[in-house]
Amino acid sequence: MSLGSVIQELREFDTALLANTIGYIDPTPAEEYYMAGTIQSVTPSLGPTVGVSVTCEIDTSTPGGVANMGNFWQQVDRINDMEEPVVWVVKTTGSRPDHECVLGDGMAKGLYAAGCIGAVADGGLRDVSGLLSIPFAAYCTGITIHHCALRFGTMDQPIEVGGITVSPGDVIHADPEGVIRIPPTCLDALSDAAVRMRAFESEAHFLMRRTDLTPSDKPGLTKQLLGKYGFA
Q: What is the reported pTM?
């Protein structure tokens, strides 16, 4: 199956379900694929957001300096040549972290026109109503009204965002509850496993609500359900 087809299938699942599923089918430690809760959706009506990561570093908060937007547009050109939907993943490097403002709806429109469906950043952004109108999904640390000169640093290299390392080409899955990086070792198997995980969770949650069972009955019955759905 093509990567584009896998990405399309993964849009059918919420991010928390996929994070749970990965824990059962892949040896990658959880701390390596889920981002910190500081990275939150500011466009919760959009999503889930699923795409291939394109990475960069940017300083938008340090006073002085000169913008170098040429680097940004060169990266947008590369995005334009990609076949899969892209998620722009941004590491901020400025001297005033609380003043970072990675993008607004103007830059987002340029990204979207090239095939980028959303951004994940460890800084702020602005123009949320404009982002929703595009539509362009955004996951960040909050809203920041303005920025200093936009200075782009390292492009298309592994970066740390939200406490995990994201490399170019990683598949990102995000929704209003958070952001994960899908380990490439389980990408092809994840959709089928997520279908089974969704069925397991439905039955397990029903089990947890039952009042005719004692609390001590429930762990063993849950383990049986895991076996039933192929996760034991």
A: 0.96
Sign of CA dihedral 15, 18, 20, 22: negative
Return d(Cα 204, Cα 222) in angstroms, integer: 6
Q: Which residue type does 90 have?
A: V
187-196 per-position pLDDT tens digit: 999 999 999 9
Which amino acid is residue 74, in one-letter code?
Q
Which residue do the tokens 């400025």 mark? 94
**In sequence order, what are the residues at sequence separation of 6 or more whose Cβ sits closer than 8 angstroms to the Cβ of residue 183?**
22, 26, 28, 32, 33
**Torsion, CA 199, CA 200, CA 202, CA 203, rounded to 10:** 120
Tell me the pLDDT band of 151, cut-offs 50, 70 and 90: very high
Q: Which residues contact 223 (CB under 8 A, 6 or more apart)?
A: 232
Q: In sequence order, what E strands does the chain have?
A: 40-41, 49-59, 86-92, 116-121, 124-125, 137-140, 142-143, 151-155, 159-161, 164-166, 171-175, 178-182
- CA–CA separation, 94 and 227 (whole Å): 49
- CA dist 183 and 34 (Å) reads 10
Burial class (CB in 10 A: 0-12, 13-18, 19+), 86: buried
Over the stretch 155-166, which tens digit does the pLDDT of each residue have? Answer: 999 999 999 999
Token pair 């990683």: residue: 170
Q: Could you tell me if 1 and 35 are in contact, meaning their C-beta atoms sit under 8 angstroms apart?
A: no
Full DSSP string of 106-150: HHHHHHHHHTEEEEEESSEE--HHHHHHTT-EEEESEE-S--S--
